[in-house]
Amino acid sequence: MKARRSIIPIFVPHLGCPHMCVFCNQNRISGNERPATAEDVKKTVDEALKILPPDTEKTIAFYGGSFTAIPADEQERLLSAAAEYVKDGRIEGIRLSTRPDAIDDEVIARLKRFGVRTVELGVQSMDDEVLKASNRGHTAEDAVRASAALKEAGFELILQMMTGLPGDTPKKSIMTARKFAAMRPDGVRIYPTVIIKDTELFDKWRRGEYAEHSIDDAVELSADLLDIFEAAGIPVIRLGLNPTEDLSGGDAAGGAYHPALRELAEARRYLRLERKLLREEDAGASAVFAVPRGKTSQAAGQHRSNIEALLDEYKLKSLKFIESDIGEKIARIK
Prior knowledge:
alpha/beta; seven-stranded parallel β-sheet; three-stranded mixed β-sheet; 13 helices; 41% helix; 21% strand; globular
């Protein structure tokens, strides 16, 4: 049995970022006003080790900035503070997030020297027009090159994508997902665009120059993306921004912000499968589906939304779910 993983997050908002992306305000997203120092790393990790269960696999993770674009001496101070815990065995590894155009041989050598295990690349899109409109400052080819270099060097590779960016379309996002799958990452994060206050995107939205990526649009598209990555055997380790008090309190002014976005997308996938198993001739009948254990809430939809939709669409008398050890997502048993 694999040990549970515990992430000890260290936020370095905007550190190393050579461009201000139109959608980004890392201080509001992370809830941190200043980036961490080496002293902060030690304090955060020491406090976390006091409360984390001893049987978990613990990882220090630098989030929020473009870590490998930070000046080298500052990178080394932060990594050195984290590496102490790896050397004495209290921490299993280090992970960090960065940009595709901030990866080269020198960077890779430094990361390996300090025991970094996982690198997350904020690619966002594989469409150069979308990248330009979002002021990313790198190209899709940069992502292909960096991903190949990191995989060859033996790092665990996580790719991050966004949907609903300026100039994006569902077709472009699906293309991005398929190109991600071809790069064979070890995991993917999907972040439907949220309109954060004090960003260029927020100003564009208020001027009517950007149409927000609604929650329903994001759910529909994310269901497609989950299908693509599942078929490729690539886990989606996060869908949607991690909820915070600031985002829920108004910093998320619009767009696809929902504390349970993954659940909504998974429920949408189930709704599609359920529709395929029902027919017009079922009107007035009772239908029963078998689903894997623990999946009833997804199959039923949030607040029974799937059940209510299907009862209405197919004029069913009733619809029930039974949990079992079936080897598929869903099966009709009545």
